[in-house]
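Service request form, structural biology core

Requester: graduate student, group of Dr. S.
Request type: structure prediction, single chain
Budget code: on file
Notes: please return the result as structure tokens.

Sequence provided:
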Amino acid sequence: MIILEFVVGYDLEKFKEYYETLDDLYEYYKKIGSVHSDIFELGEAERRHIERDNKHLIIWTDKGEIVGHNIWHETSTEEMTSGNPRVDDDRETLRKLFGGITENLVELHELWLRTEHRGKGYGLQFFDFFENYVSHNGFDGIVHYSDHPGVIALCR
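Core staff response, request fulfilled:
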């Protein structure tokens, strides 16, 4: 089994170059209506999370090649991001999952593994790394939403 390297923080311009090559992610975003352009590039929200704190970007490499990435940010059961309240059903669901109001959570904003690298156990490697990273940095849990089958498989 190949052991991935997880790089916390990465040069934003280099990441943008990699990101623009993600045809599979672009096709998914087009399908769900999140992209309305023929040019695929890093979105404003994603860029802001990374610019706010470079460690919010973690790239996954295999022998120096980027095979996946995740973008994360701090969150809570009450707000998606600071000043951005959650909708009622979302808030109630998270309160049930975390046993009440919880302020110190991490949200996996975007999680992606290139299609050709799926099915190799990389999701397990990532979550072993990320759960340890989150705990070591004092967070109480992880929140992630997705309906993409490949991303859901990573989370199992």
